[in-house]
Specification:
- The chain is an alpha+beta fold.
- It has one domain.
- The protein has 2 helices and 6 strands, in the order ββββααββ.
- The chain has helices at about 25-35, 65-80; strands at about 1-5, 10, 15, 20-25, 85, 95-100.
- The strands form 3 sheets. Strands 1-4 form a two-stranded antiparallel ribbon. Strands 2-3 form a two-stranded antiparallel ribbon.
- β5 and β6 (about 95-100) form a beta hairpin.
- The chain starts with a strand and ends in a 6-residue tail after the last strand.
- The mean pLDDT is about 80.
Length: about 100
């Protein structure tokens, strides 16, 4: 579950949202609905598309978007640098093992 606090009065679909209201979403359900519709965009995880050249973000965008992306890139970079990541036949499964040593 994710939640955000509304910063202004608006409508979300057919629902009125007032400034200060908390909006809760089940991100797994929301993303599963996208997958069924053939949508592969991950931006909904962060509440919308974020323009890295701007300090503005969509109304419900995650305020820690840049922090989250930087953290994930750092973790993935360190993982890929030190380990071998191998895809497995089942979707979304990988095997992580030691990277073979190269002769000096």
């Amino acid at each position: 579950m994710l939640w955000r606090t509304s910063v202004k009065n608006h409508k979300l679909g057919n629902v009125r949202v007032d400034e200060g209201d908390r909006v809760f979403i089940g991100i797994v359900s929301a993303m599963a609905e996208d997958v069924e519709a053939g949508v592969t965009d991950v931006d909904p995880v962060f509440g919308g598309r974020h323009d890295p050249e701007s300090d503005t973000a969509p109304l419900h965008a995650c305020p820690a978007y840049r922090f989250a992306i930087g953290t994930m890139l750092g973790i993935l970079g360190a993982l890929m640098d030190q380990h071998r990541v191998e895809a497995l036949p089942a979707p979304l499964l990988v095997r992580i093992g030691k990277r073979p040593q190269t002769p000096s």
